[in-house]
Structure formats: structure tokens, C-alpha cells
Amino acid sequence: MTSRITCPTLAARVTDAEQAATHIRPGMTVGMSGFTGAGYPKQVPQALATQIAAAHERGERFGIRMLTGASTAPELDGVLARTGGIDFRLPYQSDPELRERINRGEIDYMDIHLGHVAQFARSGFFGPIDVALIEVAAIRPDGALVPSTSVGNNATWLELADTVILEVNADQPAGLEGMHDIASCPAPPHRPPIPLTTPGQRIGEPYLRVDPSKVVAVVETHGPDRLTPFAAPDDASRRIAGHLVEFFRHEVARGRLPANLLPLQSGVGNIANAVLEGLREGGFEQLTAYTEVIQDAMLGMIRDGLITTASATALSLSPAGVADFVARIDHYRQRIVLRPQEISNHAELIRRLGCLALNGMVEADIYGNVNSTHVAGTRIINGIGGSGDFARNSFIACFMTPSTAKGGAVSTIVPMVSHVDHTEHDVSVVVTEQGLADLRGLSPRQRAHAIIKHCAHPDFRPQLQDYVDRAYLHSRGLHTPHLLPEALSWHQRFLDTGSMRV
Ligand code: 0RQ
Question: Which intervals hold domain Acetyl-CoA hydrolase/transferase N-terminal (predicted)?
Fold first, then answer.
């Protein structure tokens, strides 16, 4: 037994990655750990990829259905996509190899709300789960599992899968023990309320449980998570943060938000990270977070006492962020709770806590519909992730982006979004470096006026105003005026010429 595996029954199942991978066979559905590059299995997927490649060499077909928490890393999504070993994937991804194959039509990808996955799986919507492949930080003497740097859907995969493979990663900080809170959601009908009323509350236990008789292999691993450095905040993201700070101050002054705001949710990506950096300058104190990922900027705010408590389902840190996390892990354990994603993203809890949702987007249209996922309507970038869980249920849902993309060739404010992730009914605020449009209480035509005036880049504003003016004259219905043959012509022009400019 090693210091990380102190359960005799499970220590007896220790084997190597190659042997463990043989339990995953063609056509199986595998529930894997991993959320935004944290806590994913690091060795069995690579051994599996080798076995898949060998099968393909022999002319045998070998593909699996792969369910995770969210995005993983090159050692998982990347390597399996490259071998042609993924037939089906859900619910969120960001790996370039995987994305390319999805967009080539070679892999079926189901992009669904992260908060729905566990319930759908338990209800059998994805069919039987054959194998769970889960990274943990340690196994305790009684067989309880110390979760790793993400929780995601691990409890659900461990519960539902016929067989379980565990990776015990000795490089994950031992001090993670005690940071997690594992609770599950009862099934309908007559579900009781989930008894969580503050972001830092603990309603479960710190360990994952597994039936030891299902564990067919335990693999000892090493290696860091996918640690991606964040871009330094640029001028656009600083200005976006500035508009949000001003907006929140205004809301506090009007008595619509408390002085320490409401629990923050901050999405993935550079802009979301940079905006939190900007909120530091806003002078807010005693903040809390009820979110799904903790990126560097939020960790820094927890370290400096600006955020007192943060609830999430995963960390997503840079190398510098991890170094800080490990160095101060006792401090962070008092302030961070990592939960299953069905709890971190639960509609009931987001609504009860009244979260302030801050998410990036690809584009918004003049009426406030938001596209978070697709370039020009057909090429997926990542997925909706948790942005929909939070947008629909938060107290105020903010979507942010620079007003142009692709070096200024593309306007991120368009007549009609080329794909809808968040409808006009779920979007409270649109913000670009140009300004902030507060859409609450506005009709579609009022929203178009606010978005063009405050958010559109000056180079595209006349083009948008011209569209709206002509739509008001010629549209059949004037509730949401459109010129249908022209509504998506900006995207077609971008595809044809590389630019949305006329
Ligand atoms: O592509 O790198 O090839 O140039 O899209 O854009 O500017 O790097 O933005 O890192 O903030 O991510 C929406 C993707 C923004 C993210 C999105 C191109 C742009 C670039 C990325 P290149 P940036 P960010 C909870 C919340 C959905 C999930 C979510 C996201 C690339 O925020 O995935 O919110 N959100 N989850 O050039 C053409 C446009 C474009 C465009 C950007 N209008 N047209 N290309 N790009 N706008 C967390 C989780 O759910 C896990």
C-alpha cells in the first residue's frame, strides 16, 4: 500500500494503465472525470488510445461514447480524438483536436447544460454507463475516495457504472482532502428542497463513495492538470470590467444590490478572468462566489480576502495559480467548497442565492439573443457549458465580449445571431468595451436601440442602424422587426470575404 492508497481491498487492485484500459471495449459508454482541464484521468486514456490505434491497424472498429464533467486535456480528449476512438461526446469540450473532428462531422457531440447531465444520466437518457474512469487524490482506509481538483459528475459515474477504474494521482495536493462537499439530488417526483442557502454551506460529506466490488483496476499516476496561462488583461477587457463596476455601483446605490453584491458566477476564458481582475479595482468587499470554475483572478481575490467564500465544481488555474493554491492550501480549504456540478449549477440554488452571472459570448444580436458557442452558425467552439444554467436562473445575467473579433473584421453585435444559446428572455445585460446595455424592462425595439448605441463598435453602428431603420419600414411584424433575407447576410459576407464590413 502507498500513502495515497490505504484501503487494503482497493490496494489489491493496483495495476498498470495498459491492463486497466483493457476493461474499456468497443461501443462502451464511459463516464470520465475532468472539468475545465482539472482532475481528468491522465494515463488510462493514453493506454486506451494505443489499444484503439492497434485495433484500427488490424481493421477492427473501436470507438467509445465518452461522457465527462466538462473539458479535459490533450492527454484525454486530444489523444482519443486523434486515434478516431470517440464516437460520441458530451457535455463540453475545448480541445483543438476534438473540436476539429466534431466540426468535420466525424464525432457526434451533444452540447448540453452542465447542470442537467447527472439527472439525465440517472434517468437513463444516455443509456447504461459501462465504465467510470475517475481521477482521485487518495483512497482512505475505508475505501472512501478523496476527490481531485474537480468533482464534475464523478459521484454519478461512480454510482451508475457497472465497473470502475480509479487513477490515484500522487501529484494532486494531499491538502485537497476536506475541500469537497459531495451531495446528490433526489429524483422526481416530490423532491425535497436542496438545503443550501449560502455559498459556503456544506450539505454532504468530503468524500466520494464507490462500491469496492465494482472497482476493476486502480492505477497510480503522476502529473499536473492542464495548466493554461491566462492572457494579461488587455484594454478591451479592462474597459468591459470598468463598465460592469460602474453598473454594479449604480445598482448598489439604487438599493437593488447589497453593498457586497450577490454571489458571483464567472465563466471560462480570458475575458471572464480579466473582468474579475477588473472587479478587484471596484472597491467591493466581502464578496462571495457561487460558480462552477475558479480561475486565477478569483483565486487571487480569495487570497486577498475580497472574496470570503467560493463554491465551485472545479479549479482551472495557470501554473502560477496552482503554485499559489498549493502554497496556501490550508487558507483556501477554509474558503473554497468544491461540489458536484449538478449542485454547483443547480437552477434551484442559483435562483435562491440570486447569482450575478458573468459569461463570455461569441456574439449578441440587436434584440439580446446570445450565441456562446458557434462561429457563423455552424462551427462549434467549446459548448454552452454552465452559461445557460446560470443565465436563465441568475438574478442578473451579463454577457460580455469585445465589440469586434478577428482583428476588427467581425462585429460581435449582429442583426440576428447565427446560433442561439441564450434567448432574449434570459439576457439582462450586454457589455462590450464600448459600453453596457441594461436590457431589463425593455421591449425588443428598445433593446435594439440600447445595444446599438452602447455596445456596437462605431465602425459597425451605422450599418446596424441602417438595418434597423429599414426593418422598421419593411418588416411584416413590428414587435421584433427583421429583414429575413438580410438577417444573416453579415455572417455570409464574413464566410465569403473574411469580413462583415460592406
Ligand atoms: O478564436 O483564438 O481562433 O481567434 O472565438 O474567443 O476572444 O479568446 O474569448 O476566451 O473569452 O472565450 C464564448 C468562447 C469566449 C467562451 C467564449 C473567436 C475568437 C477566438 C475565442 P481564435 P476569445 P474567450 C461557465 C461558463 C461558453 C461556455 C461558458 C465560452 C475564439 O466564453 O466558451 O460561458 N463560452 N461557460 O477569435 C467569429 C465572432 C467571434 C469569434 C470570438 N463573433 N465571430 N469568431 N471569436 N467571437 C464555465 C463552463 O461552462 C465550463
Answer: 13-220
